[in-house]
Write a structure and sequence with these properties.
With 118 residues, the protein is mostly beta strands. Helices cover 0% and strands 53% of the residues. It has no helices and 11 strands. The strands form 2 sheets. Strands 2, 4, 5, 6, 9, 10 and 11 form a 7-stranded mixed sheet that branches. It is globular and about 40 Å long.
């Protein structure tokens, strides 16, 4: 059974930091490109950051560049998102996502709420 479980969300003041984690199981994590998405109330889900299978390549949305860092540990089947200098507009549900380009399988986590107060 495949699952992605996010954790680490919560309430933080503007300027603060949070570290999200995503634990994976049931698929070959090291062969999956991993991504973080977020969805704010009334808005479409948007890509926040992605990381290649071995972690050597990353990409970020312009809105989070320089503040967020995506990383992964293939020994632990875990994905992370370090979020610094948080802003109220970062408030959203954050989702972990996996895609294996060889099998075309994709998986979503259930999401974790991040709320940034001004």
């Amino acid at each position: 059974q495949v699952w992605l479980v996010e954790s680490g969300g919560g309430l933080v003041q503007a300027g603060g930091s949070l570290r999200l984690s995503c634990a994976a199981s049931g698929f070959t994590f090291s062969r999956a490109e991993m991504r973080w998405y977020r969805q704010a109330p009334g808005k479409e889900r948007e890509l926040v950051a992605l990381i290649s299978t071995a972690g050597g390549s990353t990409n970020y949305a312009d809105s989070v560049k320089g503040r967020f860092t995506i990383s992964r540990d293939n020994r632990k089947d875990a994905l992370y998102l370090q979020m610094n200098s948080l802003k109220p507009e970062d408030t959203a549900v954050y989702y972990c996502y996996a895609i294996n380009y060889f099998t075309t399988n994709t998986y979503w986590g259930q999401g974790t709420q991040v709320t940034v107060s001004s």
